[in-house]
Amino acid sequence: MSLPVSTGPVRIVRHPDGVVELRLDDPGRGNALDLGTAEALRDRAFEVAADPGGAVLLRAAGDSFCVGGDLRAFAGRGAETGTYVHAVASAAHAAIQALYELPVPLVTAVRGAAAGGGIGLALVGDIVLAARSGRFRLAYTAIGLTPDCGASWFLPRLVGPRGAADLILTNRVLTGDDAERWGLVSRCVDDGELDDAAHRTAAELAAGATGALRAAKALLRVGAGDELRRHLAEEARSIAALADGREAQDRMASFLAARGRPKAGDSRSGARESESVS
């Protein structure tokens, strides 16, 4: 019997097969990151790191994995915008670092939207599975901001500098199949198979040769943890500095105003997704 050991927008569920699940659990908001959610993510990630079982599974409840920073929480803060954005990014970055440095394998399952900061959170996994419904979009420059949550560190290592520049500068959308072709994810599966495939992958790893898996992962991470930490600090500085500027604040306000007027046929879930893109 699986045992939930926490509540709130980010939960931990410990499974009897040795899998420790870290679950984003605020589906009504697309698992968007405001300060409270980012801090919950950090705190739960620290708890998982202290007792990670045999493997960790990172997934999300609802139709979206994580739509990024909650622009409604960012907007209207005036001179305090940068301070708030820096606090959100710093909390999320602490979670990213803790997850990256887990000694056991980390499997990530991505359904629906992974946008903005949700991209870095998705890519931190050792093995990343995406549903065919997956939609990957950076979206930062559209609102005058720069990437956070490690996106500008992970992407060049996964898709090369040209691919990373394309994704970050143009904000193109990749489907789950596209993400597999580009090398963002390990493999793409049908939506109905994602949860079972991700848990099965994590359980097989948890049942594997623990010492060898930990040692192999350590070899893959040699020297990279400190580099990621420095890069995350620079990402937080950059996005906060831009968030204090008039261009970004005007773009965020215009973006939200446009999404407040959905076209005929638009769903509120789609509007909510687009309100959270960093």
What would you say about this model in short?
The protein has 278 residues and is of the alpha/beta class.
**Count of runs of 4 or more consecutive helical residues:** 11
Question: For the residues shown, what is the average pLDDT?
Answer: 92
CATH fold type: 2-enoyl-CoA Hydratase, Chain A, domain 1
> Separation of termini?
36 Å
Share of residues in strands: 5-15%
Rg from alpha-carbon coordinates: 18 Å
Report on the biggest sheet: 7 strands, mixed
The CATH architecture can be named as Alpha-Beta Complex
- The residue fraction in helices comes out at 40-55%
Structural class: alpha/beta
The count of strands amounts to 10
Strand adjacency order, main sheet = 1-2-3-4-5-7-10
CATH class, please? Alpha Beta
Question: Low-confidence runs (pLDDT<50, min 5 residues)?
Answer: 262-274
State the CATH superfamily name.
2-enoyl-CoA Hydratase, Chain A, domain 1
| Count of discrete structural domains | 1
| Bulk shape | globular
The topology string of helices and strands comes to EEEHEHHEEHEEHEHEHHHHH
Structure in words:
The protein has a 7-stranded mixed β-sheet, sandwiched between helices. A 3-stranded mixed β-sheet has the order 6-8-9. It has a single domain, classed as 2-enoyl-CoA Hydratase, Chain A, domain 1. The chain has helices at 35-50, 71-74, 81-100, 117-123, 151-170, 176-182, 194-206, 210-221, 224-243, 246-259, 268-274; strands spanning 3-4, 10-14, 19-24, 55-60, 106-110, 113-115, 127-131, 135-137, 174-175, 187-189. With 278 residues, it is an alpha/beta fold. It is built from 11 helices and 10 strands. Helix 3 (81-100) runs antiparallel to helix 9 (224-243) and helix 4 packs across helix 5 (151-170). It comes from Streptomyces lacrimifluminis. Residues 263-278 have a biased composition (Basic and acidic residues). This is Enoyl-CoA hydratase. InterPro entries: ClpP/crotonase-like_dom_sf (IPR029045), Enoyl-CoA_hydra/iso (IPR001753). Pfam families: ECH_1 (PF00378).
